[in-house]
Structure formats: C-alpha cells, structure tokens
Design brief:
This protein is an alpha+beta fold. It contains 9 helices and 9 strands. The strands form 2 sheets. Strands 3, 4, 5, 6, 7 and 9 form a 6-stranded mixed β-sheet that branches. β4 and β5 form a beta hairpin. The termini are far apart.
Length: 281
Amino acid sequence: MKAVGLLDTALTLADRGLPVLPLREGKGPMGNCWVCRDNVCGGRPNMKTPGPCACTAPCHAWAAATTDPHVLTSAAWAPAWRQAAAVAYHPGGTALTVVDLDDADAVAWARHTLPETRTVATTRGEHWIYRGAMTSRNAVCPGVDIKSTMSYARWLGRGTGTMTHLPHTVRALVVKEPVPSRPMPGTAAAHLPSGGGVCPHRSPAYLERGIAMAEQRIADATSAIHNTAYRTFLAVLSAHGRCGCLTDDHIDRLFAAAQAKGESLRHCETAWTNARAKLGM
C-alpha cells in the first residue's frame, strides 16, 4: 500500500478511536530520531520511563501512537509515512488485547483453549482480539504473544466474528513465566477425563453442585482468604478440571466469590494459575 493509502487508513482508524503509528519494512516501528537516539531523551511520559520527551516525530514505538489527525498529518510525521510499509495500532490504548498466534499449531491451540472472539488472518496465523486491556508479554506459549498495553499490533483489517470480553484464561497466561509447551487438541491429559471414559460431569447438576460448594467454602472463610481461595481452586480443578467442562462462567463465579471476600483480581489469577501448575494442567 502506498504512503498516501497508509495515511488514509491511519486517519480512518484514528477517527474510530484506535491510536495508530506507521511501521517500516519488517513490521518494526520507526527508529529514534537523532535527538532521541537510544532513548537518551528519557522517552515519552506514557513510556513509564523518567522524564518527558518533546519530540514531535513518531520515534517512540507504541508510545508515539495517536488518534490526533493533526499529529498524523504533521510535517514531523511526513517522512515516516513516506518510509512506511504498514500501519500499527496500540491495543491497550483503546482497551483491547490481541492474542498473536504465529502459526497453525498456535491457532489450533487457541481454538481448543480460548473463547471465540473476533479473528484477523495474518501471514502465518491469526490475531484473536478481545475487549479489555492487560499486560503484554511475548512467548507466553510457543508461537503465542500477548499484545495490549505498552505494545503494538499491525493493522490487517477488521477481521471476522464478534469481539468478546477478555477471558481469565488469557490474563492467566502472563501471570507466571512463559510455559515451555502448550496442550494440543487430543493430546493433553489436562483436557481428558481422568479415567479415560465418559466424562462424569455431563450431568449439569454434578458440576453445578461442585461450583456452588466451592463458592460457599470461600464465602464462609473468616481469615487467610488467599490460602482459602487457592485451596478451593485446587480442589475444583482436581475434581472438574481434566475433562474440559469448566467454562469461563464457572471461573468468573469462583473469582467473584473470592473478590467479594477482599481478594484482588490479580491474586485470583495467580492462585488459579498456581493451582493449575500444581496439578500439571
């Protein structure tokens, strides 16, 4: 796409509320200008680094992303648009998260693991886009990156499907260090009935009773709420986590019970992830 076309795309996206920036060949951001080389200027204020930067050029990667049409069409940005090969946007700047799936294996993992949402085809894989911002991190699983706050994603079109709310299963991916492997459909013990036979939770009442008992156990706690939440999550996963019947609605109920007792969302996510790790899931 020619520079004029890229700028037109950027202006359209900015008008929709997406903070945008130009990318050079190779999908990288524009390099620092001479004054800001190696970020000696201290970066832009929203880079969370010391000191403001008065530079008007788009040379601070995601932190340069803007929705201001006057900035996008300014003389300071004109050289960047002449060099640009693509348009990127800052997902976290508009309360979005992109799960970047680099290959077919990663896409298969997402289809088996994550709730459906809007998808955008990439050169080798897909972007799955959710409503809600979170911490960005690369390589949370092989071929899977999380792009949200302090990150950028290449604009590749609107995609297909309905965008859904950011699930706990995605947030939990960045709580611990990147995991060495990912479960694949039909191969991961964590998604199979423990006895290899018919799943015992096909009766909705069985699973519902287990979740209700877990909610009550958390609600009855009078101290050590964090430990109670962890032990309860561990018990739920031990009994109900190996057949794939637990949904985000069930997890939301458990998290809501813990938060009602004063637990933070982050502590809930950490306890859930640690319980999964304890059980080898």
